[in-house]
What does this fold into?
Amino acid sequence: MTLATAGDLDEALARLDASHAVLHRQRQELRDLSVALHSVLDDAPLPAPTADRVSIGELATMLGVKTSTLRVWEDAGLLSAERDPHTQRRSYTEPQMHIARIIRLLRQGGYLFERISPVVGAISSAGSPAALERALDERSRSLSARSRQALKGAAELHNYAEQLESATDDRH
It folds into this structure.
């Protein structure tokens, strides 16, 4: 409104459009993350590991992938492995096994690494898929509130623009 009242209605409209575009992109990202999360939650659990750590070969067998696949995921920054200080062999803890399972599921669903990375990051920072689901619900409510505020602002800008147009028409 500051721009509009200063006489720069075009810039005010451009910024309004940009804010709507940002909200739209954020809502799409949230939807993608939610779809990915639900595909993970709906999948059957992995077989229980026999130890608190598994080797790269054991994890590959559990997931039904090749060891080279796990290395590619690691190189892409999606998965991390613990390294034995003496042998440098990879081993995976329970949380890392869980992340590997998520990556496998998303890859099977056709997700590319750039779409998997935010999912893995969000689940890792949330601590669990259930915590992430709660965070996604909260984020959705926040985006809806911001959308309503943007809609209210757009209506006010529209009314102001109408008043300006009417005032201009009255002078001519």
